[in-house]
Protein backbone atom coordinates (compact mmCIF):
# COMPACT_ATOMS: atom_id res chain seq x y z
CA UNK A 1 0.00 0.00 0.00
CA UNK A 2 1.44 3.43 -0.91
CA UNK A 3 2.16 6.26 1.52
CA UNK A 4 -0.62 8.47 0.21
CA UNK A 5 -3.16 5.82 1.15
CA UNK A 6 -1.79 5.46 4.65
CA UNK A 7 -1.99 9.15 5.41
CA UNK A 8 -5.73 9.24 4.78
CA UNK A 9 -6.44 7.29 7.98
CA UNK A 10 -6.94 9.25 11.18
CA UNK A 11 -4.30 8.54 13.85
CA UNK A 12 -5.20 6.48 16.87
CA UNK A 13 -7.06 8.59 19.41
CA UNK A 14 -7.62 7.72 23.05
CA UNK A 15 -11.12 9.13 23.31
CA UNK A 16 -12.55 10.18 26.65
CA UNK A 17 -16.17 9.75 25.60
CA UNK A 18 -18.25 7.22 27.53
CA UNK A 19 -19.19 5.73 24.15
CA UNK A 20 -16.00 5.89 22.07
CA UNK A 21 -16.10 5.78 18.28
CA UNK A 22 -13.65 3.67 16.32
CA UNK A 23 -12.91 3.07 12.68
CA UNK A 24 -13.23 -0.65 13.40
CA UNK A 25 -14.54 -2.71 16.29
CA UNK A 26 -13.22 -6.28 16.37
CA UNK A 27 -15.15 -8.81 18.47
CA UNK A 28 -12.88 -11.56 19.75
CA UNK A 29 -9.14 -11.83 20.50
CA UNK A 30 -8.49 -15.26 19.07
CA UNK A 31 -6.52 -16.00 15.91
CA UNK A 32 -9.03 -14.22 13.65
CA UNK A 33 -9.36 -11.08 15.73
CA UNK A 34 -5.64 -10.70 16.31
CA UNK A 35 -4.80 -11.46 12.69
CA UNK A 36 -7.27 -8.80 11.56
CA UNK A 37 -5.74 -6.30 13.98
CA UNK A 38 -2.23 -7.01 12.70
CA UNK A 39 -3.24 -6.51 9.09
CA UNK A 40 -5.26 -3.36 9.90
CA UNK A 41 -2.15 -1.86 11.47
CA UNK A 42 -0.14 -2.76 8.38
CA UNK A 43 -2.80 -1.03 6.26
CA UNK A 44 -2.56 2.15 8.35
CA UNK A 45 -5.79 1.64 10.29
CA UNK A 46 -4.90 2.33 13.91
CA UNK A 47 -8.13 3.55 15.44
CA UNK A 48 -9.66 0.20 16.36
CA UNK A 49 -10.54 -1.80 19.46
CA UNK A 50 -10.67 -5.53 20.15
CA UNK A 51 -13.44 -6.58 22.54
CA UNK A 52 -12.62 -9.84 24.32
CA UNK A 53 -14.96 -11.50 26.81
CA UNK A 54 -12.15 -13.37 28.58
CA UNK A 55 -9.25 -12.01 30.59
CA UNK A 56 -6.64 -13.21 28.12
CA UNK A 57 -6.40 -13.55 24.35
CA UNK A 58 -6.43 -16.92 22.63
CA UNK A 59 -10.06 -17.84 22.01
CA UNK A 60 -10.56 -21.58 21.66
CA UNK A 61 -6.91 -22.29 22.52
CA UNK A 62 -7.27 -20.42 25.79
CA UNK A 63 -10.48 -22.24 26.65
CA UNK A 64 -9.59 -25.75 25.50
CA UNK A 65 -6.91 -26.92 27.92
CA UNK A 66 -8.26 -30.41 28.53
CA UNK A 67 -5.83 -33.35 28.87
CA UNK A 68 -4.26 -34.11 25.50
CA UNK A 69 -5.66 -31.02 23.76
CA UNK A 70 -3.80 -30.45 20.51
CA UNK A 71 -4.30 -29.35 16.92
CA UNK A 72 -4.91 -31.96 14.22
CA UNK A 73 -3.16 -29.79 11.61
CA UNK A 74 0.69 -29.62 11.59
CA UNK A 75 2.03 -26.65 13.57
CA UNK A 76 3.95 -25.19 10.62
CA UNK A 77 0.65 -24.93 8.75
CA UNK A 78 -1.49 -23.99 11.75
CA UNK A 79 0.20 -20.62 12.23
CA UNK A 80 0.17 -17.37 10.32
CA UNK A 81 2.38 -17.28 7.23
CA UNK A 82 3.42 -13.74 8.18
CA UNK A 83 4.40 -14.82 11.71
CA UNK A 84 6.22 -18.18 11.49
CA UNK A 85 7.32 -19.84 14.71
CA UNK A 86 10.67 -21.69 14.45
CA UNK A 87 10.31 -22.98 18.01
CA UNK A 88 7.41 -25.44 17.62
CA UNK A 89 8.29 -28.40 19.84
CA UNK A 90 6.67 -31.04 17.64
CA UNK A 91 4.79 -31.67 14.42
CA UNK A 92 1.36 -31.31 16.05
CA UNK A 93 1.56 -28.89 18.96
CA UNK A 94 -0.60 -29.00 22.04
CA UNK A 95 -3.06 -26.30 23.00
CA UNK A 96 -0.77 -24.83 25.68
CA UNK A 97 1.95 -24.21 23.10
CA UNK A 98 -0.52 -22.73 20.60
CA UNK A 99 -1.83 -20.48 23.38
CA UNK A 100 1.73 -19.26 23.96
CA UNK A 101 2.04 -18.54 20.24
CA UNK A 102 -1.12 -16.42 20.38
CA UNK A 103 0.23 -14.45 23.33
CA UNK A 104 3.46 -13.96 21.39
CA UNK A 105 1.46 -12.39 18.55
CA UNK A 106 -0.06 -9.88 20.96
CA UNK A 107 3.35 -8.93 22.34
CA UNK A 108 5.30 -8.95 19.07
CA UNK A 109 2.77 -6.84 17.16
CA UNK A 110 2.04 -4.56 20.15
CA UNK A 111 -1.69 -5.26 20.22
CA UNK A 112 -2.25 -5.05 23.97
CA UNK A 113 -3.23 -1.33 23.98
CA UNK A 114 -6.04 -2.14 21.52
CA UNK A 115 -7.57 -5.00 23.55
CA UNK A 116 -10.29 -4.52 26.16
CA UNK A 117 -10.79 -7.65 28.26
CA UNK A 118 -13.93 -8.67 30.12
CA UNK A 119 -16.11 -7.22 27.36
CA UNK A 120 -18.85 -9.74 26.67
CA UNK A 121 -20.90 -8.51 23.72
CA UNK A 122 -24.65 -8.99 24.09
CA UNK A 123 -25.94 -7.10 21.03
CA UNK A 124 -24.89 -5.20 17.91
CA UNK A 125 -27.14 -2.63 16.27
CA UNK A 126 -26.74 -0.44 13.20
CA UNK A 127 -27.67 3.25 13.45
CA UNK A 128 -29.27 3.93 10.06
CA UNK A 129 -28.76 7.69 10.37
CA UNK A 130 -25.01 7.66 10.98
CA UNK A 131 -24.02 4.26 9.56
CA UNK A 132 -22.30 3.49 12.85
CA UNK A 133 -22.58 0.13 14.58
CA UNK A 134 -23.37 0.25 18.30
CA UNK A 135 -21.82 -2.71 20.12
CA UNK A 136 -23.37 -3.25 23.56
CA UNK A 137 -21.52 -5.19 26.24
CA UNK A 138 -22.80 -6.75 29.45
CA UNK A 139 -21.28 -4.02 31.61
CA UNK A 140 -23.44 -1.41 29.90
CA UNK A 141 -20.78 0.05 27.63
CA UNK A 142 -21.45 1.01 24.02
CA UNK A 143 -18.62 0.88 21.50
CA UNK A 144 -19.34 2.64 18.22
CA UNK A 145 -17.67 1.53 15.02
CA UNK A 146 -17.72 2.54 11.37
CA UNK A 147 -16.97 -1.11 10.65
CA UNK A 148 -17.40 -4.22 12.77
CA UNK A 149 -15.51 -7.51 12.46
CA UNK A 150 -17.19 -10.49 14.09
CA UNK A 151 -14.16 -12.63 14.94
CA UNK A 152 -15.54 -14.70 17.80
CA UNK A 153 -15.17 -17.88 15.74
CA UNK A 154 -17.40 -20.96 15.35
CA UNK A 155 -15.79 -22.92 18.21
CA UNK A 156 -16.50 -20.46 21.01
CA UNK A 157 -19.50 -21.75 22.95
CA UNK A 158 -19.60 -25.30 24.40
CA UNK A 159 -22.51 -27.46 23.30
CA UNK A 160 -24.44 -29.12 26.10
CA UNK A 161 -26.15 -32.33 24.96
CA UNK A 162 -29.93 -32.57 25.24
CA UNK A 163 -29.95 -35.66 27.46
CA UNK A 164 -32.86 -36.20 29.82
CA UNK A 165 -31.88 -36.02 33.48
CA UNK A 166 -28.46 -34.42 32.98
CA UNK A 167 -29.32 -31.53 35.29
CA UNK A 168 -30.25 -33.96 38.08
CA UNK A 169 -26.97 -35.88 38.04
CA UNK A 170 -25.35 -35.72 41.49
CA UNK A 171 -21.75 -36.39 40.45
CA UNK A 172 -19.21 -34.16 38.72
CA UNK A 173 -19.86 -32.86 35.19
CA UNK A 174 -16.97 -31.48 33.13
CA UNK A 175 -17.16 -30.14 29.58
CA UNK A 176 -14.03 -30.55 27.46
CA UNK A 177 -14.01 -26.82 26.65
CA UNK A 178 -14.29 -25.84 30.33
CA UNK A 179 -11.99 -28.39 31.96
CA UNK A 180 -11.74 -28.37 35.76
CA UNK A 181 -8.05 -28.96 36.49
CA UNK A 182 -8.69 -28.98 40.23
CA UNK A 183 -10.84 -32.10 40.02
CA UNK A 184 -8.78 -35.24 40.61
CA UNK A 185 -9.76 -38.13 38.30
CA UNK A 186 -7.45 -40.63 39.98
CA UNK A 187 -9.28 -43.85 40.80
CA UNK A 188 -12.67 -42.40 39.78
CA UNK A 189 -15.36 -44.04 37.66
CA UNK A 190 -15.47 -41.73 34.64
CA UNK A 191 -17.82 -41.60 31.66
CA UNK A 192 -16.94 -39.85 28.41
CA UNK A 193 -19.90 -38.90 26.22
CA UNK A 194 -18.78 -38.42 22.63
CA UNK A 195 -16.09 -39.88 20.40
CA UNK A 196 -15.19 -36.83 18.31
CA UNK A 197 -12.06 -34.73 17.98
CA UNK A 198 -11.73 -33.77 21.66
CA UNK A 199 -12.79 -37.17 23.03
CA UNK A 200 -10.13 -39.10 21.16
CA UNK A 201 -7.51 -36.82 22.72
CA UNK A 202 -8.92 -36.96 26.24
CA UNK A 203 -9.48 -40.73 26.44
CA UNK A 204 -5.83 -41.83 25.98
CA UNK A 205 -4.69 -39.19 28.48
CA UNK A 206 -6.98 -40.19 31.33
CA UNK A 207 -7.48 -43.94 30.84
CA UNK A 208 -4.45 -44.89 32.96
CA UNK A 209 -5.39 -42.45 35.73
CA UNK A 210 -9.02 -43.37 36.34
CA UNK A 211 -10.35 -46.47 38.03
CA UNK A 212 -12.89 -47.25 35.29
CA UNK A 213 -13.49 -45.45 32.01
CA UNK A 214 -16.76 -45.88 30.14
CA UNK A 215 -16.91 -44.39 26.64
CA UNK A 216 -20.33 -43.74 25.09
CA UNK A 217 -20.19 -43.74 21.30
CA UNK A 218 -23.08 -42.62 19.13
CA UNK A 219 -21.37 -42.90 15.74
CA UNK A 220 -17.92 -44.32 14.95
CA UNK A 221 -15.52 -42.01 13.13
CA UNK A 222 -12.92 -42.50 10.46
CA UNK A 223 -9.58 -42.36 12.31
CA UNK A 224 -6.23 -41.91 10.58
CA UNK A 225 -2.66 -42.24 11.89
CA UNK A 226 -1.04 -39.08 13.23
CA UNK A 227 2.53 -38.45 11.98
CA UNK A 228 3.62 -36.63 15.11
CA UNK A 229 7.34 -36.16 15.84
CA UNK A 230 9.43 -34.10 18.22
CA UNK A 231 11.17 -31.19 16.49
CA UNK A 232 14.94 -31.53 16.77
CA UNK A 233 17.23 -28.76 17.93
CA UNK A 234 18.87 -28.81 14.50
CA UNK A 235 15.53 -28.14 12.79
CA UNK A 236 14.74 -25.24 15.13
CA UNK A 237 18.16 -23.73 14.49
CA UNK A 238 17.68 -24.18 10.74
CA UNK A 239 14.29 -22.47 10.83
CA UNK A 240 15.68 -19.56 12.88
CA UNK A 241 18.72 -18.96 10.69
CA UNK A 242 17.29 -19.91 7.31
CA UNK A 243 13.59 -18.98 7.40
CA UNK A 244 13.07 -20.10 3.80
CA UNK A 245 13.49 -23.73 4.95
CA UNK A 246 10.48 -23.46 7.23
CA UNK A 247 8.55 -21.72 4.47
CA UNK A 248 9.38 -24.61 2.13
CA UNK A 249 8.08 -27.13 4.65
CA UNK A 250 4.90 -25.09 5.06
CA UNK A 251 4.41 -25.10 1.29
CA UNK A 252 4.91 -28.87 1.13
CA UNK A 253 2.39 -29.37 3.94
CA UNK A 254 -0.08 -27.07 2.21
CA UNK A 255 -0.02 -28.95 -1.08
CA UNK A 256 -0.13 -32.31 0.68
CA UNK A 257 -3.31 -31.25 2.44
CA UNK A 258 -4.70 -29.76 -0.78
CA UNK A 259 -4.42 -33.16 -2.44
CA UNK A 260 -6.47 -34.64 0.41
CA UNK A 261 -9.48 -32.69 -0.84
CA UNK A 262 -9.90 -35.27 -3.60
CA UNK A 263 -10.45 -37.94 -0.96
CA UNK A 264 -12.38 -35.90 1.59
CA UNK A 265 -14.70 -33.60 -0.36
CA UNK A 266 -15.77 -35.60 -3.41
CA UNK A 267 -16.58 -39.21 -4.24
CA UNK A 268 -13.43 -39.98 -6.22
CA UNK A 269 -11.12 -43.00 -6.54
CA UNK A 270 -8.94 -41.39 -3.86
CA UNK A 271 -11.86 -41.61 -1.43
CA UNK A 272 -11.77 -45.39 -1.67
CA UNK A 273 -7.99 -45.35 -1.17
CA UNK A 274 -8.43 -43.24 1.98
CA UNK A 275 -11.13 -45.58 3.28
CA UNK A 276 -8.88 -48.58 2.74
CA UNK A 277 -6.12 -46.81 4.64
CA UNK A 278 -8.52 -46.06 7.50
CA UNK A 279 -9.75 -49.66 7.59
CA UNK A 280 -6.18 -51.00 7.52
CA UNK A 281 -5.26 -48.72 10.43
CA UNK A 282 -8.26 -49.97 12.42
CA UNK A 283 -7.43 -53.61 11.68
CA UNK A 284 -3.80 -53.11 12.69
CA UNK A 285 -4.64 -51.46 16.00
CA UNK A 286 -7.76 -53.38 17.08
CA UNK A 287 -7.52 -57.18 17.16
CA UNK A 288 -10.97 -57.98 18.52
CA UNK A 289 -13.41 -58.51 15.63
CA UNK A 290 -16.47 -57.32 17.56
CA UNK A 291 -14.78 -54.10 18.65
CA UNK A 292 -13.59 -53.50 15.08
CA UNK A 293 -17.18 -53.84 13.94
CA UNK A 294 -18.30 -51.32 16.56
CA UNK A 295 -15.62 -48.87 15.44
CA UNK A 296 -16.22 -49.20 11.69
CA UNK A 297 -18.05 -46.21 10.13
CA UNK A 298 -21.00 -46.88 7.82
CA UNK A 299 -20.69 -43.62 5.86
CA UNK A 300 -18.32 -42.17 3.26
CA UNK A 301 -15.06 -40.80 4.57
CA UNK A 302 -15.28 -37.02 4.78
CA UNK A 303 -19.02 -36.96 5.45
CA UNK A 304 -18.11 -36.28 9.08
CA UNK A 305 -14.87 -34.84 10.42
CA UNK A 306 -11.90 -37.19 9.97
CA UNK A 307 -9.97 -37.78 13.20
CA UNK A 308 -6.24 -38.37 13.68
CA UNK A 309 -4.77 -40.33 16.58
CA UNK A 310 -2.21 -43.06 17.25
CA UNK A 311 -3.39 -43.66 20.80
CA UNK A 312 -7.21 -43.68 20.68
CA UNK A 313 -7.74 -47.30 19.59
CA UNK A 314 -5.16 -48.70 22.05
CA UNK A 315 -6.80 -46.73 24.90
CA UNK A 316 -10.20 -48.27 24.18
CA UNK A 317 -8.64 -51.71 24.63
CA UNK A 318 -7.28 -51.07 28.15
CA UNK A 319 -8.66 -53.47 30.76
CA UNK A 320 -10.31 -50.63 32.69
CA UNK A 321 -12.01 -49.15 29.58
CA UNK A 322 -15.42 -50.14 28.18
CA UNK A 323 -16.92 -48.98 24.88
CA UNK A 324 -20.71 -48.60 24.97
CA UNK A 325 -22.61 -48.26 21.69
CA UNK A 326 -26.15 -48.52 23.05
CA UNK A 327 -27.95 -45.14 22.80
CA UNK A 328 -28.17 -43.11 26.01
CA UNK A 329 -31.72 -43.13 27.36
CA UNK A 330 -31.21 -40.72 30.24
CA UNK A 331 -28.91 -39.65 33.02
CA UNK A 332 -29.86 -40.77 36.52
CA UNK A 333 -28.76 -39.35 39.86
CA UNK A 334 -25.83 -41.77 39.97
CA UNK A 335 -24.92 -42.43 36.34
CA UNK A 336 -25.99 -43.02 32.75
CA UNK A 337 -28.79 -45.36 31.69
CA UNK A 338 -28.66 -46.79 28.16
CA UNK A 339 -31.47 -48.05 25.95
CA UNK A 340 -30.80 -51.67 26.95
CA UNK A 341 -31.86 -50.82 30.51
CA UNK A 342 -28.37 -50.91 32.05
CA UNK A 343 -27.35 -48.12 34.43
CA UNK A 344 -23.65 -47.29 34.37
CA UNK A 345 -22.84 -45.66 37.70
CA UNK A 346 -20.03 -43.11 37.50
CA UNK A 347 -18.43 -40.44 39.67
CA UNK A 348 -17.79 -38.01 36.82
CA UNK A 349 -19.25 -37.35 33.37
CA UNK A 350 -16.98 -35.76 30.75
CA UNK A 351 -18.98 -34.06 28.01
CA UNK A 352 -16.86 -34.20 24.86
CA UNK A 353 -19.80 -32.89 22.86
CA UNK A 354 -18.13 -30.09 20.94
CA UNK A 355 -19.42 -26.62 20.27
CA UNK A 356 -22.62 -24.85 19.39
CA UNK A 357 -21.56 -23.96 15.85
CA UNK A 358 -23.77 -21.13 14.48
CA UNK A 359 -25.24 -22.84 11.37
CA UNK A 360 -28.40 -20.84 12.01
CA UNK A 361 -29.17 -17.93 14.30
CA UNK A 362 -26.53 -15.69 15.86
CA UNK A 363 -24.72 -15.72 19.23
CA UNK A 364 -26.39 -12.41 20.19
CA UNK A 365 -28.97 -10.11 18.53
CA UNK A 366 -27.57 -8.36 15.44
CA UNK A 367 -29.81 -5.64 13.99
CA UNK A 368 -29.19 -4.27 10.52
CA UNK A 369 -30.94 -1.75 8.29
CA UNK A 370 -34.41 -0.89 9.55
CA UNK A 371 -33.95 -3.07 12.62
CA UNK A 372 -33.91 -6.33 10.67
CA UNK A 373 -32.63 -9.27 12.72
CA UNK A 374 -29.90 -11.49 11.35
CA UNK A 375 -31.07 -14.40 13.51
CA UNK A 376 -34.44 -14.36 11.76
CA UNK A 377 -32.86 -14.29 8.30
CA UNK A 378 -30.53 -17.14 9.25
CA UNK A 379 -33.20 -19.22 10.98
CA UNK A 380 -33.23 -21.84 8.20
CA UNK A 381 -29.51 -21.67 7.55
CA UNK A 382 -26.84 -18.98 7.52
CA UNK A 383 -25.89 -17.34 4.22
CA UNK A 384 -23.41 -14.63 3.29
CA UNK A 385 -21.43 -13.29 0.34
CA UNK A 386 -18.01 -14.98 0.19
CA UNK A 387 -18.68 -15.94 3.83
CA UNK A 388 -17.84 -12.35 4.84
CA UNK A 389 -20.74 -9.95 4.22
CA UNK A 390 -24.53 -10.18 4.59
CA UNK A 391 -26.88 -7.96 2.62
CA UNK A 392 -28.76 -5.53 4.85
CA UNK A 393 -25.93 -5.43 7.39
CA UNK A 394 -23.54 -2.89 5.90
CA UNK A 395 -19.97 -2.47 7.21
CA UNK A 396 -20.28 -5.78 9.06
CA UNK A 397 -17.61 -8.37 8.33
CA UNK A 398 -17.51 -11.96 9.55
CA UNK A 399 -14.52 -14.27 9.91
CA UNK A 400 -15.33 -17.94 9.40
CA UNK A 401 -18.79 -17.00 8.31
CA UNK A 402 -21.18 -19.27 6.39
CA UNK A 403 -19.59 -21.84 4.05
CA UNK A 404 -15.98 -21.04 4.82
CA UNK A 405 -15.13 -24.19 6.75
CA UNK A 406 -12.18 -26.28 5.53
CA UNK A 407 -12.48 -30.04 5.42
CA UNK A 408 -8.92 -30.88 4.45
CA UNK A 409 -6.56 -27.96 5.02
CA UNK A 410 -5.55 -25.53 7.77
CA UNK A 411 -8.21 -23.14 9.01
CA UNK A 412 -5.59 -20.42 9.16
CA UNK A 413 -5.01 -20.68 5.41
CA UNK A 414 -8.65 -19.72 4.88
CA UNK A 415 -8.53 -17.19 7.70
CA UNK A 416 -5.66 -15.22 6.17
CA UNK A 417 -7.65 -14.82 2.94
CA UNK A 418 -10.68 -13.60 4.89
CA UNK A 419 -8.59 -11.12 6.85
CA UNK A 420 -7.04 -9.69 3.67
CA UNK A 421 -10.51 -9.29 2.15
CA UNK A 422 -11.89 -7.62 5.31
CA UNK A 423 -9.02 -5.13 5.43
CA UNK A 424 -9.75 -4.17 1.81
CA UNK A 425 -13.38 -3.60 2.77
CA UNK A 426 -12.49 -1.46 5.78
CA UNK A 427 -10.08 0.62 3.70
CA UNK A 428 -12.83 1.10 1.12
CA UNK A 429 -15.12 2.54 3.81
CA UNK A 430 -12.43 4.84 5.21
CA UNK A 431 -10.81 5.95 1.96
CA UNK A 432 -14.12 6.81 0.29
CA UNK A 433 -15.67 8.11 3.54
CA UNK A 434 -18.62 5.77 3.10
CA UNK A 435 -21.60 5.68 5.39
CA UNK A 436 -22.53 2.20 4.21
CA UNK A 437 -20.88 -0.55 2.19
CA UNK A 438 -23.57 -3.17 1.67
CA UNK A 439 -23.40 -6.25 -0.54
CA UNK A 440 -26.24 -6.31 -3.05
CA UNK A 441 -28.93 -8.92 -2.28
CA UNK A 442 -28.94 -10.35 -5.82
CA UNK A 443 -25.16 -10.80 -5.70
CA UNK A 444 -25.41 -12.64 -2.40
CA UNK A 445 -28.24 -14.82 -3.72
CA UNK A 446 -26.31 -15.82 -6.86
CA UNK A 447 -23.24 -16.67 -4.82
CA UNK A 448 -25.14 -18.90 -2.41
CA UNK A 449 -27.04 -20.67 -5.19
CA UNK A 450 -23.68 -21.59 -6.68
CA UNK A 451 -22.26 -22.72 -3.32
CA UNK A 452 -25.25 -24.95 -2.52
CA UNK A 453 -25.18 -26.47 -6.01
CA UNK A 454 -21.53 -27.37 -5.54
CA UNK A 455 -22.18 -28.70 -2.02
CA UNK A 456 -24.84 -31.08 -3.33
CA UNK A 457 -22.06 -33.05 -5.04
CA UNK A 458 -19.83 -33.37 -1.95
CA UNK A 459 -19.41 -36.12 0.63
CA UNK A 460 -20.66 -33.74 3.33
CA UNK A 461 -24.10 -33.79 1.73
CA UNK A 462 -24.08 -37.53 1.02
CA UNK A 463 -26.55 -38.51 3.73
CA UNK A 464 -24.86 -38.77 7.12
CA UNK A 465 -25.77 -36.52 10.02
CA UNK A 466 -23.00 -34.16 11.14
CA UNK A 467 -22.46 -30.80 12.81
CA UNK A 468 -21.83 -29.39 9.35
CA UNK A 469 -25.58 -29.51 8.63
CA UNK A 470 -28.72 -27.95 10.09
CA UNK A 471 -31.51 -30.21 11.30
CA UNK A 472 -33.15 -30.14 7.85
CA UNK A 473 -29.86 -30.90 6.05
CA UNK A 474 -28.79 -27.42 4.93
CA UNK A 475 -25.01 -27.07 4.78
CA UNK A 476 -24.13 -23.62 6.05
CA UNK A 477 -20.66 -24.58 7.21
CA UNK A 478 -18.27 -26.00 4.62
CA UNK A 479 -16.61 -24.58 1.51
CA UNK A 480 -16.99 -27.01 -1.44
CA UNK A 481 -13.58 -26.75 -3.00
CA UNK A 482 -9.83 -26.45 -2.65
CA UNK A 483 -8.22 -23.87 -0.38
CA UNK A 484 -6.59 -22.55 -3.55
CA UNK A 485 -10.04 -21.91 -5.04
CA UNK A 486 -11.16 -20.17 -1.86
CA UNK A 487 -8.10 -17.92 -1.98
CA UNK A 488 -8.77 -17.08 -5.63
CA UNK A 489 -12.32 -15.91 -4.93
CA UNK A 490 -11.13 -13.73 -2.03
CA UNK A 491 -8.26 -12.10 -3.90
CA UNK A 492 -10.31 -9.34 -5.49
CA UNK A 493 -12.63 -6.95 -3.68
CA UNK A 494 -15.20 -6.18 -6.38
CA UNK A 495 -16.85 -2.89 -5.45
CA UNK A 496 -19.53 -3.53 -8.08
CA UNK A 497 -20.94 -6.22 -5.80
CA UNK A 498 -21.71 -3.59 -3.16
CA UNK A 499 -24.11 -0.69 -2.78
CA UNK A 500 -22.15 2.33 -1.55
CA UNK A 501 -23.77 5.16 0.41
CA UNK A 502 -21.71 8.30 0.87
CA UNK A 503 -21.17 9.74 4.33
CA UNK A 504 -22.88 13.08 5.07
CA UNK A 505 -20.47 14.12 7.78
CA UNK A 506 -16.80 15.00 7.10
CA UNK A 507 -14.10 12.34 7.52
Automatic annotation (TrEMBL):
| Annotated keywords | Monooxygenase, Oxidoreductase
Which Gene3D superfamilies does this chain map to? FAD/NAD(P)-binding domain
* InterPro entries per the UniProt record, alphabetical: FAD-bind_Monooxygenase_sf, FAD/NAD-bd_sf
Query: What protein name applies here?
Result: Monooxygenase
Top-rank taxon:
Bacteria
Any one Pfam family match given in the protein's UniProt record, by short name: Pyr_redox_3
Q: Which GO terms describe its molecular function?
A: monooxygenase activity
Asked whether the UniProt record includes Transcription among its keywords, one would answer no
Signal sequence coordinates: none
Amino acid sequence: MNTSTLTRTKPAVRRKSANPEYDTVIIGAGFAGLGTAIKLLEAGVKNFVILERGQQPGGTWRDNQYPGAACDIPSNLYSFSFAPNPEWSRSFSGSAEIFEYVKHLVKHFKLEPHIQYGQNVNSAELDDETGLWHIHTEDGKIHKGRAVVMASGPLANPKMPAIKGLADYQGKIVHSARWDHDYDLAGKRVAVIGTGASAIQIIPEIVDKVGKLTVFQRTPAWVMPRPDFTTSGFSKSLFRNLPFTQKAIREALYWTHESMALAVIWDSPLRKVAERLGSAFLNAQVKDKWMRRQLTPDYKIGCKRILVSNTYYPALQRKNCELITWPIANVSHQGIRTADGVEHQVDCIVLATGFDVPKSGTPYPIKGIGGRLLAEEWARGAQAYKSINVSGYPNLFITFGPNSGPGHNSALVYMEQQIAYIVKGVRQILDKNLKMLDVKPEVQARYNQSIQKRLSRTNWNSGCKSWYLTEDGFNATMYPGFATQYAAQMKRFDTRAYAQVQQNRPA
